[in-house]
Amino acid sequence: MSTKPNTPKGMRDFLPQEVMRRNHIMGVMKTQFERYGFLPIETPAMERRELLLGKYGDEGDRLVFKLLNSGEKVKKADLDALDKGELSRFGNSLSDKALRYDLTVPFARFVVQHQNELSFPFKRYQIQPVWRADRPQHGRFQEFTQCDADAIGSDSLLLELEFIQMIDAIFGDLQLSGCTLRINHRKVLEAIAQLAGAGAETTRFFTTLDKLDKVGWEEVKRLLLEADFDTDILDKINAALEGKSNIDQLDVLGQLLGTSDSDHDPIQDLSFLFSNLEQLNSTTVVFDWTLARGLDYYTGTIFEISAPEQVTVGSIGAGGRYDDLTGVFGMKDMSGIGISFGLDRIDLVLSELDLFPPTLYTSIDVMVVNFSMDMITSLIPYINELRKQGKRVFVYPSAAKLKKQLGLANQLQIPYALIMGEEEWKDQSCTLKDLNTGEQSLIPLARLTQHNWD
């Protein structure tokens, strides 16, 4: 009995129109990345397992797709762990490679491995798929594409400003307005965590606070209280900041936290950003002291982009400053900052808001109708010349009724049909039909390649 073919859960095929949409988004991303001085790189789909684990927190580590060893390496399986029911240790003994969880940790490995071939500060962009063993749901897949840009080798706040401007430029080109960019600083959160009695449990505090968008404020407070954190300070901060502007919130928070006047004071860093932001056209930028970003490698400014309110897909981009991600690979003092856009979620948002340009799906300029092999072969020199000029030409491969051929042209949203029937063949001409208006023009073959179709 044959099995119905299916993709694995959380994985997808992409039809031509879907690929066109994705190419449109990636084209906008690449254009803006390059305008801001980023260079393209690529890294392998899989990395060494130990390189990935321990970089994303406990929750992230559980979502890393591990690849089973094969051949002689299977003999290294820890059967003692299996006998003892220690399934995590047993699973790790079966695998020494994993599919990449994101593009940032592999980028840090890339920088260290190729440091003698790179010039610093180094700015790179990368558009490739990543994999996470997460539960598939709307806007969340096990395989998805990230569009990343990172700058490494400088701790200048000018980079944060440029990233914010680039984010706005990308959404402007995509005609996507109404997005919100929330900004915070990990050192602000660390100070709040200490006031809440986190002690050495700051990671747990961040992880719990990071659930805010999913479970709501009251549930987060309950979870923090359950973990013996003091939530009174959180209520105090909420009350003190309510209704105030971004700059005023930072001033008040600085007083509550007792921040210093040093050059590395996080409140001063955030104040610099907000006071130097020019008017943005597509994106609202707000300070949000509750933004945590659960990944362990962030150390400074962090940010997250939300889609317009009428679309519910979670964040469509996020990133932040990391001061020593390369340090775990032996390369110290390499501060970096990066942004990761979720291509799949942005596609969902643009589709739901009907923001893709109507011309996007016109990937073929003209269909050549086929009534006989002799007629088609007589047209081949002209077809080749049209292609050299940049026209995208679809030749119907076999003789068929005109209705059938034009039906396919309509399905493929081809705007023109080039028709050579018996009369045109005798006269050495062709009929060019506009399939949107129905208008027809008789064009001598000698002038076909000079005809203005626009």
Report on this model:
- The structure is a single chain.
- This protein is an alpha+beta fold and 454 residues long.
- It has helices spanning 16-35, 49-52, 57-62, 79-83, 87-93, 104-113, 157-173, 186-195, 202-209, 212-215, 217-226, 232-241, 246-257, 266-276, 343-352, 373-388, 402-411, 422-427, and strands at residues 39-40, 46-48, 66-67, 97-99, 122-131, 143-152, 179-185, 283-287, 301-306, 315-322, 336-342, 366-368, 393-395, 416-419, 429-434, 440-444.
- The strands form three sheets. Strands 1-5-6-11-10-9-7-8 form an eight-stranded mixed beta sheet. Strands 13-12-14-15-16 form a five-stranded mixed beta sheet. A three-stranded antiparallel beta sheet has the order 2-4-3.
- Strand 15 and strand 16 form a beta hairpin.
- The chain is globular.
